[in-house]
Amino acid sequence: MRDAWWDKAERILIGLLGLAAMIVGLVQVAGRYIAPRYAITSAEEVIVYLVVWGIMLAASQLVRTDGHVRPDLVLRAVSPDVQRWMEAANCLVALAFCAGLAWYGFSIVETSWMLDERSSSDVQFPMWLYSAAVPTGAALMSGRYLIRLYRYIFAFDPETMTVGHIPAHEQVAGAGHASHTDT
Question: Are 169 and 118 in contact (CB under 8 A)?
């Protein structure tokens, strides 16, 4: 697949952010009970920053895997051709939303940068870096929605792109069309 490198990079970054948050949390808890003078005083703040960045990156993965909220029940009730155009329309609406989110997020980052806004803790973390997760996530989602839109308009395959279809590589041998939950 052409965007496999993108998937891998996102998954690695999400995993590293989650691992870093877990390590900071473990060090904080261990430090609090074993060696209080070595406890990280701003661990909760750092964990929040790491998790927010992870969530915004994961939003792009959700677009790729159809994991965002969508009307699957309605899509299952219509023909593949209608599904195609409903999905294309959904991509256009999502792109408009992501554009607004990116614009608003960028304005927050810009304001935070201009004011040299810092967290109130001892870390004095630059808040523009924390806020940059929003326009970054919106830009990544926009890229995914553009790819989806292209595929629905120019490369639609009803056998693999309709709701309810289970790709051959995900089917259990002999199970046929057993119940399938989207992830």
Answer: no
